[in-house]
Amino acid sequence: MNILCTSLYEQQLKTILEDFAVEDLTATKKFKLYLDTILINLPTKANKYKKAQLFDDEDIKEIAHEDFNILFFIDKINNNYLILAILPKD
Q1: pLDDT tens for each residue of 35-73
Q2: Does residue 88 contact residue 10 with C-beta atoms inside 8 Å?
Q3: Cα–Cα distance between 76 and 55 in angstroms, integer?
Q4: CA 76 to CA 54: how far, in whole Å?
Q5: Which helix (H) or strand (E) segment is 61 a member of?
C-alpha cells in the first residue's frame, strides 16, 4: 500500500513546523522525524489506531502524536493510506 498526503495535511504540517522552529529547532526536527517514522510504519500498524472521533467511518482513523491528531483514510479500493490532516487535540 502507498502512503499519500493531501495538500491540506502538507500545508498544516508546514505551519506547525514553522511555528515550532521559532521556539526550538532541535525539538522541531525530532517532532518531524518521529512523525515520519509513524507514517512510514503505517501499513503495518494501521489497525492499532482508533476510529476518528470526527467521522462515522471505520476506515478513517487517528494517530495521537504529542498535542496533535493525525487523521488518515484507509483506501482499500486503491490500496492507499491517505493522510488527511493534522489537528491540535482539544
Answers
A1: 999 999 999 999 999 999 989 999 999 999 889 999 999
A2: no
A3: 17
A4: 20
A5: strand 60-65
